[in-house]
Amino acid sequence: MLPKIQHIYNRKEVKMKSITLIASRTTDHINNLDKSIKLVRAGGPALYCKQAIEESGLKVHLLTSRRPVTVYITIQDRHEKIRIDRIGMITLWGRLPARNVLLSPILGEFDLEQVAQRNCRIFLDAQGYIRARGEDLVQRWICAPWMVKNVVAIKVNQRESNCVSEEILNLFRSRVLLITRGQEGVEVWDHGKQYQIHSHPIEVADTLGAGDVFFGSFVTSYLQSGDVPSATRLAVRKAEQLLRRK
Fold first, then answer.
1. Three-state DSSP class for 241?
2. Is 134 in contact with 58 (CB distance < 8 Å)?
3. Coil, helix or strand for 169?
4. Cα pseudo-dihedral 166, 87, 32, 212, rounded to 10
């Protein structure tokens, strides 16, 4: 079990802290059938997580694919269906630019084994290991405990959590586990203690980017405070701010 990371950073370390962000940037082709709107815009965790981290004042070292990934998104009855046909792999050739790593793949484009034995502290959005090719499909995440040895926290949404083994879920209930539940808020496990962080219902055209802003904001706040519930509350507020701007 990893030791609880709390109140171990001195002021100099907090001021100089930076994050390696391993994630894909995307070109989102959005077809909103609810509002008869079609648009194309930049997106992906490389965009939204990076913005959230930089807003907190921390430095970002972005590792991403050479080209944006084309993502097709259909919105109908306020439900988003996502299809990704092709994606370029992200390969870590040398040293990590920063020991704190936010890893947010969208379709398994980064092999977790590349960092499994590294001296680093990983915050993992497991979406990319659960999403499957095809429209709105998921698959079981095959993950051995040794692969997440240096992972501090995992984020999944409610649907994705059903694709994670109970062994891995229990492992991260003893570390940090975030299960986002949309307008119902976030189920939080902080080293064996469970919390429910509530959110405010917001009517929006789409929720794209909200999960990335949430996780990027959580990681930066947690690194600076070591307080999981407080970091989660701040992250929920940041995600809500994004949704209100849509």
1. helix
2. no
3. helix
4. 50
- N- to C-terminal Cα distance for the chain? 41
SS3 of residue 239 by DSSP: helix
- pLDDT tens-digit series, residues 55-108: 999 999 999 998 999 999 999 988 899 999 889 999 999 999 999 999 999 999
Q: Residue 17 has what DSSP assignment?
A: -
Q: Which sign, positive or negative, has the C-alpha torsion 50, 10, 152, 90? A: positive
Where exactly are the structural domains of the chain? 11-245
Give me the architecture of the 11-245 domain, per CATH.
3-Layer(aba) Sandwich (3.40)
Residue 3 CB coordination number (10 Å): 8
Task: Transcribe 185-216 into DSSP letters.
Answer: -EEEEETTEEEEE-------S--TTHHHHHHH
Model pTM score: 0.91
